[in-house]
């Protein structure tokens, strides 16, 4: 499992992220699964990834139209008994922040002990407005809020495993203890935290569904293509809800 995960990171995401091959954003919506979903059982969970001010328009890492999916996410939450929110939650000197380096550009890549790491504008700093959930997100239904990226030395895209691929967030154990076997994922951003969470969910053995009309991408060169490839490779279903 660990090996699979490492290979995936090395071959599918990290290396291809800077080799843009030209697919357009609209391809994100191709090939949705049309099966009836019948959600709402105890064995279904919804993960709502990082609906925070800094990932919405006006935020320091604002995703285009990131706020436009919130209304739908709130209605999707009503279809689930198990709702998990994630919150990107960095110390102000986090090692992924461009502000920690003299000679690095935002969105460039550096080598960390655990592999390649994208350099980001400072975002989702603990205790700041940018780290708060967007005011329109219903946070009342959530069983649990999973925080990630709070260790200075390790970034964390996935809701399950930090970017070193060995530090767990505890989500997998929680879902298994609840008897969950289907995981539905929405939120921000499709090509980073949603993608990594979906791959880890699938590797953990959950039937995994990404809700394509309730997510938006950052869209760095090649990042959407890599995401869609990884969805095929890891049998991740694309659905609309
Ligand atoms: C994310 C970049 C850095 C995300 C988090 O939520 O997709 N992206 N930290
Ligand atoms: Zn982050």
Description:
- The protein has 241 residues and is an alpha/beta fold.
- The chain has a single domain (2-86, 131-144, 153-239), classed as Rossmann fold, CATH 3.40.50.850.
- The chain has helices spanning 2-14, 70-77, 171-177, 190-203, 223-233; strands spanning 44-49, 83-88, 109-112, 115-118, 144-148, 182-188, 207-216, 237-239.
- The chain has a six-stranded parallel β-sheet with strand order 5-2-1-6-7-8. The chain has a two-stranded antiparallel sheet with strand order 3-4.
- Strand 1 (44-49), helix 2 and strand 2 form a beta-alpha-beta unit.
- Helix 4 (190-203) runs parallel beside helix 5.
- The site of pyrazine-2-carboxylic acid has 9 residues, from helix 4.
- Zinc ion binds at residues 88, 90, 123-124, 149.
Topology at a glance:
Blueprint: H1 2-14, E1 44-49, H2 70-77, E2 83-88, E3 109-112, E4 115-118, E5 144-148, H3 171-177, E6 182-188, H4 190-203, E7 207-216, H5 223-233, E8 237-239
The structure holds pyrazine-2-carboxylic acid (VGL) and zinc ion.
Pyrazine-2-carboxylic acid binds at residues 50, 55, 88, 120, 157, 188-189, 192-193.
């Amino acid at each position: 499992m660990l090996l699979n995960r490492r290979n995936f990171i090395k071959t599918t995401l990290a290396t291809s992220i800077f080799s843009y091959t030209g697919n357009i954003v609209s391809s994100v919506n191709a090939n949705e699964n049309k099966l009836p979903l019948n959600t709402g059982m105890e064995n279904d969970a919804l993960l709502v990834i990082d609906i925070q001010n800094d990932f919405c328009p006006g935020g320091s890492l604002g995703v285009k139209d990131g706020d436009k999916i919130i209304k739908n996410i709130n209605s999707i939450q009503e279809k689930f008994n198990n709702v998990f929110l994630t919150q990107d939650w960095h110390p102000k000197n986090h090692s992924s922040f461009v502000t920690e380096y003299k000679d690095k550009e935002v969105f460039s890549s550096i080598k960390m002990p655990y592999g390649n790491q994208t350099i980001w504008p400072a975002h989702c700093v603990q205790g700041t407005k940018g780290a708060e959930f967007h005011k329109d997100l219903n946070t009342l239904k959530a069983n649990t809020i999973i925080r990630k990226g709070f260790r200075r030395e390790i970034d964390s895209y996935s809701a399950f495993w930090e970017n070193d691929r060995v530090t767990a967030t505890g989500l997998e154990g929680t879902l298994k203890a609840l008897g969950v076997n289907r995981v539905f994922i929405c939120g921000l951003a499709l090509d980073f935290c949603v993608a990594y969470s979906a791959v880890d969910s699938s590797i953990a053995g959950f039937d995994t569904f990404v809700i394509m009309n309730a997510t938006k991408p950052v869209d760095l060169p090649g990042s959407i293509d890599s995401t869609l490839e990884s969805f095929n490779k890891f049998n991740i279903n694309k659905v609309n809800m």
